[in-house]
Structure prediction request, 577 residues.
Amino acid sequence: MTATAAQPLGQSAPARGATSFDVERVRSDFPILGRTVHDKPLVFLDSAASAQKPQAVIDAMRHFYEAEYANVHRGVYFLSARSTQAFENARVKIQRFLNAESAREIVFTKNATEAINLVANSFGGAYLGAGDEVVLSMLEHHANIVPWQLLRERTGIVLKVVPISDRGEFLLDEFERLLSPRTKLVAVTHTSNALGTVPPVEEIIRLAHERGVPVLLDGCQAIVHQAVDVRALDVDFYVFSGHKLYGPSGIGVLYGKAKHLDAMPPYQGGGEMIRSVTFEKTEFADGSAKFEAGTPPIADAIGLGAAIDYLDGIDRVAAAAHEQQLLAYATERLREVNSVRLFGTAEPKASIISFELAGVHAHDVGTVLDQAGIAVRVGHHCAQPLMDRLGVTGTVRASFALYNTEADADALIAALKDVREIFG
Amino acid sequence: MSALRELNQEVILDHGKEPRNFGRPEAPSCQSHGHNPLCGDTLTIYLTLADGVVDDIRFEGRGCAISIASASMMTELLKGKTVDQVKVLFEQFHGLVTSGAAACEAGFETNDLDKLVVLSGVREFPMRVKCATLAWHTMKAALENNGEEVTTE
Prediction:
């Protein structure tokens, strides 16, 4: 993969049709795409909520349960050793995928939300006090808002919110203005789940680091569409969930620079995260282990490792170009539907299209699309402050993954025309 | 498309676009606020009672075609009903949109409920039943006047 920190999406995308990306071969790797819904072929345009799983992930988890399962880091027996090895191998795969320096910097969590809560509780609890400021942006989903509000209730920190333009662009000037001597952390999305906006994270990190402020990036959406190199970015914390990256649910990742993780206090207490325990005193394990109390989601971590292996076998630059081409195609075809209002037209943006049909509630749209076998997300996308900023209660969101096709976009447009026919 | 047509019949679209009894009366006897956190839809139902009879019923809010139409049609149906009749109709309507059974078997006020049979199409759309029942649950909470916000969750 490329060595650049955050490769702009699709800027070097080949002309339509020129890509070597074989979408039909990719589709055949995802068994669920062969099913029907309401007697129509499934058109899955909700991968930004959770992606479907390739056979390789399903097989890896099944094989693990059938042939290698035991608890990790415990027994001296054969299966325990195999299980531990498979689990730790998954951690190494993620380390390489992110180009992290050490596997000790990879903490398994149950999802990205828990990863952010971990940082808010551990880092925030230890180093942030009354009056200290955390900078978020208007683009955040609830996972990167509520943990900081809970911390605010406990410690009296102050939350600053970077505004966006009407097009959904992250306003870098405003961001710089919000940085103050009291700023102790910046926590922003690497790609908006509701609008697809990709903020200028290299600039954000540079401006924050110039003032000695660490940065957390919420990479749930970004990591699906682009290569992420945490060392090139020089980001302090990077979080993402497994299920959006074609892996299983129940597993998330927190990357943290070793200097932070080593200094931070534990998040939860229990087994696995200790070096020694007496009733008088407990010594904690080092690195990621300190944050993984209790039996971890073993098979899910291995499933995520398999998802990363799967992605390693795909030309991800070509896949990103394919997604960008679908974004352009679907955006253009949306013009054919009367009175569509598009939200989020920032450049660059990921293959997420948020829109409303004037006069028709998003849920009414969603029900009609469902009857056509089309899965989209309707509603506030767990980003209510952003919806308020846009002046809507919710939108319809179609998100395009590497397995989507122009035919999927065509089906969407046809069904939206049906919506117009029904609702006028 | 047939199930969709059933769900989105003309009368529903009409009530959804031009809801009846929409607005806030000056001095309602009781009111309640309903909220569907799934979609952010909100409704406030205002009841004006006189001698145990619904003298006036109005609502405000925003939502999908189903929820607004259901609220609108409910206000038309309940005006002039006694509180006891309202409670029976609540149970009947709930049965109508969940199982489809209650509409006829009660043998009471069925003519009234017939007007709402158009809403029974939501039975085929499990994710949408709450849209149709939000107004009714909110109305019931207003009658019971417990002042707590109603949510569909």
